[in-house]
Amino acid sequence: MTLDTLSRTCYSEDHEAFRSTVRRFVAEQLEPHAAKWDEDGIVPKDVWPKAGELGLLCPTVPEAYGGLGLDFGYNAIIDEEIGYGTDVATGFSLQSDIVANYIIQYGSDEQKQTWLPKMVSGEIVTAIAMTEPGTGSDLQALRTTARKDGNHYVINGSKTYITNGQNADLILVCAKTDTDVQPAWKGVSIVLVEANREGFKRGRNLDKVGLDAADTSEMFFEDVRVPITNCLGEEGKGFIYLMSELPQERLGIAISAQTAAQRAFDMTVEFTRDRKAFGKPVLDFQNTRFILADLKAKLQVGWAHLDWCIARHIKHELTPVEASGAKLWHTELQGEVVDKCLQLHGGAGFMNEYPIAKQWRGARVTRIFGGTSEIMKELIGRSL
To answer: Catalytic residue numbers?
Structure first.
């Protein structure tokens, strides 16, 4: 089964033609190397230019800066095909769905000319450093500082759980440029830091429960000097920028979660059809059919909701509350699907040699990163 069997309402013929390119790349360049990259704990950097050559990185970047100038639907198709075709966590979505938009929306023309073409081509890998030890989702409690010294910032602090942390050439660092202003969020800025700056150090590649191939790292900044012109947008507006861009990040997570849930479901239907118990296929037991029927119905609803979200976002109409709802619902659905599908695999489900085990491990973090399910409920609740 492929995603072609779904009837989608949010994509044009051009979108679907693009899908075949993405699918071929996933089948030829990603999935065959999944086991090796999981073992290594990182996707090699030479994969990025291969994706860039096919237009699979940052497709929304305007043509003036080396991109294709396409709508978010193309990002969504990349997220779907990677999520359905492989369990490899490439880090592409962070660059395409998140970092690129910050630079497009808030970067100076010089910053755009310098960085966007290299992001599109895969020449550089990017990361965004928000989370710090002990702060979690509370961005107002940042301790990393960027102190002015002449025409430079001097950055000190540490970050953790940073996606693309080992590969990153450019990091968008969230830091306090004013530690005295109240409320605290008014002192937050986003500063571009090149990885070759003196005083910047990467910590270890963190050992995670799942998403083994995703390089996720600690970062340390000790008197790192960068020009004030490296500030993204206006100083002190970083928190506002972060809040403005979170809907697209959360929608991207929802897309990946829904697609991964569909992958787990389809694999489980196949498995239960082939696996015998008490002389008949596991799928022939009423309990199995009822569980899978329930999941199929929920996935069906999920796709309809996701298409609604994507269509609204392409028209720039998706609200932060709606995006939070999408992130909450689709990641919780993914958790339910992979858990029930693992159960239907029986003992095999607990063996890492079966894909469902890897899917189950990888699914757990989607209810945490990009804002926990609890934070999503809080945001939705405030809108009531």
So the answer is: 249
